[in-house]
Amino acid sequence: METTAARRGSPRALWPDVRSIIMLGLNYGQHLEDDPLAILARRDRGAISVYARAEDYHDIIKPRLKAVARWLIAQAGGDAKVFVDTAAVMEKPLAAAAGLGWQGKHTNLVSRQFGSWLFLGTIFTTLELPADAPETDHCGSCRACLDVCPTAAFPSPYRLDARRCISYLTIEHKGPIARELRSAIGNRIFGCDDCLAVCPWNKFAQAGRESKLAAREELTVPRLADLARLDDAAFRKMFSKSPVKRTGRNRFVRNVLIAIGNSGDASLVPQAIQLLDDPSALVRGAAVWALSRLMPAERFAALARDRRPRESEPLVATEWTAALGPAAA
Fold first, then answer.
1. Could you read off the pLDDT of 14-36 as tens digits, one per residue?
2. Is 232 annotated in the active site?
3. Of 44, 79, 85, 226, which residue is the catalytic one?
4. Which residue from 73, 90, 173, 238 lies 20 to 30 Å from 286 (Cα-Cα)?
């Protein structure tokens, strides 16, 4: 774990007594031979972001931050508070100001030692600590992270349009994902590593040594057919202690159905048809889209004649109309 201090723009709104900010980074890099983008070619499998294939990093980092904070107070007095995505803390610019790395053109932190694979944590303290020197930008003329983005989420270097970011869409976005972006999502069902994985600085990265951050086998290349069958209880069991759990079963299965629609695999049609009866309108709507992509037009039209009249939820009705085309409006 790397530790450094910064006193740049203390967020008084969060804690009026704060005098210094300590930024910490925990490496979660995988072995160099493990290409995080290789699964994108396996269309019958779901791609889960590297950071979410292991235990929830919040549960790993927060106790360590508290231990550092207790040690600091014992040594020097004062008071401290810790944060791991638990408040409106601008972790990335603070980490750059503290010298842990720099914000690359993809807006994420890049370290010369660890590449793109760092979790960040924050300690606010009432102590006056000397500030470390900020890291300088080492992106140069490279555009790898910008050019690889499937949804063109970077309008310019160092700017991210979250409305097009697959990580945002598959994790935070609560409603249906915009139809024009669904094809580009491919089989990414939770997060996206593309802009991180292609960064040339990763050639200097080291594999993380924290065993709790090692990928769980069942989350590395999960079958879409199996994931489509998850009800709420099975979802909670499978993703216990995983960051995936926070997105909820319905949004997750929505993502799985988009991946199924992009798979080109007609053997997945039965799973999607079954989800037309799901209690969640979000899931039913995604099932309509997936089936419109996998079924021959005549068969899909016959399915629509049978199922569409039963649907009273406007969200799902809109999906049927869009899938059938203007003639069905």
1. 788 899 999 999 888 876 557 88
2. no
3. 85
4. 238
